[in-house]
Amino acid sequence: MSQDKVRILIVEGRFYSDLSDELLRGAADAITAFGAEYDVVTVPGALEIPAIVAIAAEKGGYDGYVALGCVIRGETYHFEIVSNESSRGLMDLAVRKGLAIGNGILTVEDEEQAWARARVSEGDKGGGAARACLDVVNFKLGQGE
């Protein structure tokens, strides 16, 4: 891209808003530490995230994308559908369109696991997803090794 700063779009599913806030904090910290800029788009849940990434990529203006959200196993098969399809959608976009996407959608058994992975002071999966995205961006821009 022909701009000075790397621009990242964070797309966050807000189904579990407190967890989303923590994931976003980690991602924002990582992107800021890198010296990049970011925008945030919120959607209801994980299944909407790939569509927003696809639309944003089509419009242009971003070097990479960070997907944030949480899917907690319940009593029905819905967990598998949401987990598998959101991940598949993001992977398809990354591979087919060559997009830099960091996947920070947590898929966990319970809320305790979710918090252990989301907290910046513990798992920092939001920050990890942002750093993964930025690594791919660096490679795409010819700055990787």
UniProtKB/TrEMBL annotation:
| GO cellular component annotations of the record | cytosol; riboflavin synthase complex
> A GO molecular-function term, please?
6,7-dimethyl-8-ribityllumazine synthase activity
Domain of life per record: Bacteria
- Where, by residue number, is the active site? H78 (proton donor)
Tell me the Gene Ontology biological-process terms attached to this UniProt entry. riboflavin biosynthetic process
Keyword annotations from UniProtKB, A to Z: Riboflavin biosynthesis, Transferase
Which reaction is catalysed here?
(2S)-2-hydroxy-3-oxobutyl phosphate + 5-amino-6-(D-ribitylamino)uracil = 6,7-dimethyl-8-(1-D-ribityl)lumazine + phosphate + 2 H2O + H(+)
Pathway(s): Cofactor biosynthesis; riboflavin biosynthesis; riboflavin from 2-hydroxy-3-oxobutyl phosphate and 5-amino-6-(D-ribitylamino)uracil: step 1/2
At which positions is 5-amino-6-(D-ribitylamino)uracil bound?
Answer: F15, A46, L47, E48, C70, V71, I72, N103
* Enzyme Commission number(s) from the entry: 2.5.1.78
Q: What class of enzyme is it?
A: transferase
Tell me the residue numbers annotated for binding (2S)-2-hydroxy-3-oxobutyl phosphate.
E75, T76, R117
Function per UniProt: Catalyzes the formation of 6,7-dimethyl-8-ribityllumazine by condensation of 5-amino-6-(D-ribitylamino)uracil with 3,4-dihydroxy-2-butanone 4-phosphate. This is the penultimate step in the biosynthesis of riboflavin.
Q: Which family does it belong to?
A: Belongs to the DMRL synthase family.
User: What is the protein's name according to its record?
Assistant: 6,7-dimethyl-8-ribityllumazine synthase
- Organism, by scientific name, is Caulobacter mirabilis
Provide the gene name from the record: ribH
